Amino acid sequence: MTYEDILKELKSKHYRPIYYLMGEETYYIDLIAGFMEENLLSETEKEFNLTIMYGMDIDVAAIIHAAKRYPMMSEYQVVIVKEAQTVHNMEAFSYYLQKPMKSTILVICHKHGTLDKRKKLAADIEQNGVLFESKKLKDAQLPLFITSYLKNKNVEIDPKAALMLADFVGSELSRLTGELEKLMITLPVGQIRITPEQVEENTGISKDYNHFELRAALLEKDVWKANQIIKYFAETPKNNPVQVTLALLFGFFSNKAARSSKWL
């Protein structure tokens, strides 16, 4: 299931006994867990039926004990386990999944890693609920993510502006969405399109001297422009760390070499 599928089910009030959210990309894990924390129970129901636990403070037995409680004056109770990657011997949780409580919605957030899908626990979770892996987006997918995120908020973005942001922020989606939210706030009244000029003004990225323009200069074999951009990077190392530039150059010439080898 995708995170969109999960949210669609939740909004239609189709709940599963367990949601195991795992992976390297924390953004989608936080998005799903946050939606469940805020929306599955009324404010009154939350007082007695919302439990939030942290992996560093508990063990598997504590999770099972919380999950086996009955809700009070509510159809469901919601139990959210954050930082579950620190819980030892999680495989023992299969015991609870033999007969999970239908009145409990258990959400386990396992960040910066995944379960071994070959083991029994993963199979038990998939049989009873949702096993969701939140994967890091590839750099090439970031402009589409930016465009889609803004479209859902009725805002457009210039393709060059999207590439500038993707290059500058990278694949950390929580930080990227934060930058997008700030840009939307700075839009003049009545304007619904983010331009390269606005990105430059509000983020510190230069619309003329950035990784997108460097790539274009290399493709066009414009030595003068490429050198100007590199010179700008050297003068502004805080906004243009050399590690990012080296990674871009490595990727550019690796792809160029791979394409050339096909014709040999």
Written account of the structure:
This protein is an alpha/beta fold. It folds into two domains: 3-133, Rossmann fold (3-Layer(aba) Sandwich); 139-243, Helicase, Ruva Protein, domain 3 (Orthogonal Bundle), CATH 1.10.8.60. Helix content is 52%, strand content 12%. It contains 13 helices and seven strands. It has helices at residues 3-11, 26-39, 43-49, 60-67, 94-97, 120-128, 142-151, 159-169, 173-186, 196-203, 211-219, 223-235, 242-261; strands at 18-23, 50-54, 77-82, 104-111, 130-133, 156-157, 193-194. The protein has a five-stranded parallel sheet, sandwiched between helices. Helix 8 packs parallel to helix 10 and helix 9 (173-186) crosses helix 10 (196-203). It is elongated. One of its GO terms (molecular function) is DNA-directed DNA polymerase activity. This is DNA polymerase III subunit delta. Residues 19-133 form the DNA polymerase III delta N-terminal domain.
Quick one: biggest sheet? 5 strands, parallel
The first-to-last residue Cα distance is 42 Å
Percentage beta strand: 5-15%
**Helix-strand category:** alpha/beta
Average pLDDT value? 88
| Number of discrete domains | 2
Q: What would CATH call the homologous superfamily of the largest domain?
A: P-loop containing nucleotide triphosphate hydrolases
H/E order of the elements? HEHHEHEHEHEHEHHEHHHH
Shape: elongated
- Give the name of the CATH architecture of the largest domain: 3-Layer(aba) Sandwich
Write a compact overview of the structure shown:
With 264 residues, the chain is of the alpha/beta class.
